[in-house]
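Appendix B, example 12.
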Amino acid sequence: MPLTFDDLLTRARALARDERRALLGIAGSPGAGKSTLAEHLVRTLNADGPPWVAHVPMDGFHLADAELDRLGRRDRKGAPDTFDAAGYAALLRRLREEGDEVVYAPGFERVLEQPLAGAIPVEPAARLVVTEGNYLLLGQGSWARVRPLLDEVWFCALDEEERIRRLVARHEEFGKGHEAAVAWVLGTDQRNAELIETTRERADLVVPPGALPLLRRPA
């Protein structure tokens, strides 16, 4: 039978059955629906009572534009070496090991395209943390520390034409002109997408488009 969103909910709930906090990762290429899936999972799982699921995106570990300028990497923002991968892995370890106090995670401001320190509080009541990002399954450098810290990683698979359409729309929504958006998507974003696609086989579950009927915006 085809995988459904209800199947994903059941699988996510099962990760947090014991007393230990569980971490669920959602990976995939830019525009594949990672953020939207994570947000919908968290919202649905928290709907029936006190919140027990938290959402911690990887995007808060983007290096600031000033640092990317210093390193000469601003023109390929979003590539693996434009994030603080070691810092992200350290946060995941804290989330796993420090369940008795609030852990603060950085957020990401889409309009400013900048990380925001201490923007996301993860309360002790959070028994499941959903984290999403491009490189959760990458085995290179400090990114290799990430996968062992996650109980499961799901990979969002979206039709390539639809993924590109959604990604162009997202860049336009946050300020790029159409031609600039298309150029970025088919250049920098596409190179990253091709790398991310090579990590798909390391996922515990590949989530097909049919399991994501409620996606409405690019992610």
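The CA atoms of residues 45 and 53 lie 7 Å apart. The longest helix spans residues 178-197.
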